[in-house]
Design a protein that fits this description.
Blueprint: H1 37-50, H2 54-57, H3 60-83, H4 112-168
Length: about 170
């Protein structure tokens, strides 16, 4: 007599490379990963520095410039990513997002005077949040501006040092 219990489905197998087998209908199209603008800039910069003559490429000036330049480019990118939400009109940062409710006894809660007081409190809170957010946006812009200025100074100082050394050789 044969066992009439259903047989369990065969487990899905994987190859030695751990690639999951899929049916043709289930396969998704794999898009090649594209480089971000920052990554393209850094790659171009790095390849430019590496294409220099060995003596120039390994000089203290080039290494220091490359390190400072890349560090500040990354800092600018992080600032922009961190601060991009501030420029959205609907976004309220957590450190200024408050809920203030003025309450009173049940006898006065339905009066027009009490509703006027609640409206004034709501308007004052909205004014505070708007003013604080404007100050935060100004601070974010100043951070990016100062980092850009620092980056320009790094490039200027490197150019001045490098070409001055070249003229003295």
């Amino acid at each position: 007599m044969q066992n009439s219990a259903p047989t369990p489905p065969a487990p899905q197998t994987t190859s030695v490379l751990r690639i999951k087998r899929t049916r043709i209908g289930e396969a998704s199209v794999i898009q090649p990963k594209t480089m971000s603008d920052k990554d393209q800039l850094l790659a171009t910069f790095e390849s430019g520095c590496l294409s220099l003559h060995e003596a120039a490429r390994d000089s203290e000036q080039i290494v220091r410039f490359r390190t400072n330049f890349v560090k500040n480019l990354i800092k600018i990118q992080k600032l922009r990513l961190r601060n991009h939400r501030l420029f959205d009109d609907t976004f309220i940062p957590k450190n200024i997002d408050m809920k203030i409710a003025i309450t009173g006894t049940p006898e006065i809660q339905n009066t027009d005077d009490f509703k006027t007081i609640q409206g004034k409190a709501s308007a004052a809170l909205q004014h505070y949040q708007t003013a604080m957010k404007e100050l935060m946006v100004e601070t974010a812009k100043l951070e990016v501006k100062m980092t850009n200025k620092l980056l320009q100074e790094i490039v200027f100082n490197f150019t001045k040092e490098f070409f001055l050394d070249m003229l003295l050789l």
